[in-house]
Amino acid sequence: SITTQDKSKWNATAPNLYGLMFEDIDHSGDGGIYAELIANRAFSGGAITGNDNPIEPYQSTLDRWVPIGDTQIALDLYHPLSDALPNSMAMTFPANATGRVGVLNTGFWGMDVSPQTYTGSFWINAVNQTYPPNNTTDITVDLRSNLTSDIWVNTTISNYHIGTFRYSQVNFTLENNVTAPNANNTFAITFDASQVAGQTFYLSLTSLFPETFKGRPNGLRKDLAEAFYDLKPGFLRCPGGNNIEGNSIAQRWKWYETIGPLENRPGRIGTWGYWNTDGLGLMEYLDWCEDMEMIPLLAVYDGYSLDHTSYPLEFMDEVLDEILAELEFCLGDTSTKWGAKRAEYGHPEPYNITYVEIGNEDMFSCTYTYRLNYLYPALKKAYPNIRFIQTQYNENAGGGYADCGEGITVPIRDGGGWDAHHYETPSFYLDTFNYWDNFEAENNFTDIEIVLGEYSVFQLDTSTGYVNYSDPPEIHPAYPELISAIGEGIYMLSAERNPSLVTLMSYAPSLQNLNLYVWTPNMIVFQAQHNLTVLTASYWQQHLFANFRGTHTVPVEGELNPLYWVGVVDESSGAFYLKIVNTGNQTVPLTLNFDSGYYSVNGTTLQSEDPNVYNSVDNLHAIEPRMLTGSELPQPGNLPSNATTPVTMVSSSAA
Ligand code: AHR
């Protein structure tokens, strides 16, 4: 029984409810949505090994670089490009070298090659060598097969003068017309040995980008960004996750090292076992938000790192200063020090930031109380219009794992909010339909918001019933299954039912490179070859819920279990959306009684008889939404004769 016409029963939906959680995990950034094709581009850091190898992040490496022909390569630490990028590669061409010489980069487990314009650059010099000062050299760059002798595209920079005192940047484009049959391709820089035999050149910061999402320089891998964009995301939570915290205070995400020219960004050992270039830095995140019309939920480092070290209270002023400078960089006008820097880097207008998250999962620390008490009032005073989200509340709801003796409750501030995380089993989520219904009343909150910044079915149900975050990994599904999507769907209903409380929610983690990962399951699984990207069952669940948003929830009465639902109207179009999750294993006949007429019905379902069905690299399309047809839909004869507006049913079901 559906009441759509009585506006006194309408509740405004949360406009940005469904969003994206992004941190660099599982090579989601470098080697993922950050479109850079060159791996280890400045010889700064590696651990770009395969899944069979232990993950040991390390600095200063020639990993992923291979000499061509009569070329010797060596890591060089004496010819820095910049303070941030001190390493280079010495390419030595012996006096008796012949043929083509140079180096190639094997990328992040290959490179997808398709018709488009690639844009690249590298820095090169011949410091202290005998290279004749007035001499010039032809330099050829190409994309080539790693399996055959095919060269897909190349261009030659003729008569280039390689400086003998300082680096110069060589810029080029590759206009490619072919599609390589697979992603086992490399990028090469070569010379004719007859021109360079006997010389040593130093190479630094090499970069190659395909066309990016919305054409942003230094931008996003198009196909992955488009998969995100298709989710109509309302917000982006970034840059962590654990990755903002760092494995130690020294290794935290330092916003000020992620801005400006790439040669000024040192990168860091990320939390998840590999080098982060920070090419995808603070401004790239905020530009990403603008390009997808989302708001940022910007996480700031709050003085706690994953080795359980916390800034002591007497040093918290340093943490506060770091955050205030970051916010000035994002929001200050150009008369401020950091606002001017932002303008210098290409964005004179302040960014639009309305949510800031103070830390990440601080329930793992015992020090959040003093850190938040120090930070929150000062930040709120400086930015009264920002809603600051805390990451620890109490031990009962959504975790509270630190062993702090009697346990800690960190009250949620009026005007603030709490980011609760849930990595759970399907059966946990089956009980969450009413999870948030009484939260405010029971806890006497009046003006708070709940962010569900990370949630997903992390583990399938087992006889023990509890979630095991460590081994054995086998109980964590490699890919989200339909049963995962159903559980997550119930949790999404719980949020949609409480739109003034739960305002933002994001599945996590969102992206996984199949070649190196430490966490499953993820929403999208990809590799270098674009047409092998897996849009998982959970992705499609997000897609269904987020694409049928509506402006107001309306009352829908009926018998719950196995069906659960929420009904939403769209005020401007008059459409009504009924989102149903069937938690049973059978088809349930439905009769819809409306208080007014609807003239047409269509429906989309994510459905299978097998609750464990999943999309994978071996079967990309095992489970996808499909339109309901014929007798699956309420028939026109069943609709009232005064029908006037459309209704859409969305369901996910194991039936
Ligand atoms: O999503 C993976 C990790 O899970 C996040 O980095 C962290 O916040 C949570 O524990």
From TrEMBL:
<comment type="pathway">
    <text>Glycan metabolism; L-arabinan degradation.</text>
</comment>
<comment type="similarity">
    <text>Belongs to the glycosyl hydrolase 51 family.</text>
</comment>
<keyword id="KW-0325">Glycoprotein</keyword>
<dbReference type="GO" id="GO:0031222">
    <property type="term" value="P:arabinan catabolic process"/>
</dbReference>
<protein>
    <recommendedName>
        <fullName>non-reducing end alpha-L-arabinofuranosidase</fullName>
        <ecNumber>3.2.1.55</ecNumber>
    </recommendedName>
</protein>
<keyword id="KW-0378">Hydrolase</keyword>
<dbReference type="GO" id="GO:0046556">
    <property type="term" value="F:alpha-L-arabinofuranosidase activity"/>
</dbReference>
<feature type="domain" description="Alpha-L-arabinofuranosidase C-terminal">
    <location>
        <begin position="453"/>
        <end position="643"/>
    </location>
</feature>
<dbReference type="GO" id="GO:0046373">
    <property type="term" value="P:L-arabinose metabolic process"/>
</dbReference>
<keyword id="KW-0732">Signal</keyword>
